[in-house]
């Protein structure tokens, strides 16, 4: 994963990613960015905090109750889960087989 920098080349941010399939981010008013991604091999959703060109150590925020996560979306309006992974809420339930992605509509 790379973020643009003021240098002419991209800066590797998380070079250890191997099975990340879906990304989303949350921009904070203080200028930091929370980046979220799903790892299909580990069935885990991770978060990292980016401040400028530095990134924190990736942390798993959801690692139980998942099965082949292929799409994520940050719900920055109503927070179906807190950004630390707590307070999770089921947003769709029923006869849905192998959903591939999800999108947040803030309207």
Automatic annotation (TrEMBL):
Name of protein: Low-density lipoprotein receptor repeat class B
Keyword Cytoplasm attached: no
Organism: Oesophagostomum dentatum (Nodular worm)
Coiled coil: none
Keyword tags: Lipoprotein, Receptor
A single cellular component GO annotation: plasma membrane
Record-linked Pfam families: Ldl_recept_b
Cross-referenced PROSITE patterns: LDLRB (PS51120)
LDL-receptor class B repeats: 33-78
InterPro entries: 6-blade_b-propeller_TolB-like, Cueball_EGF_LRP_Nidogen, LDLR_classB_rpt
Any single GO BP term: canonical Wnt signaling pathway
MF terms in GO: Wnt receptor activity; Wnt-protein binding
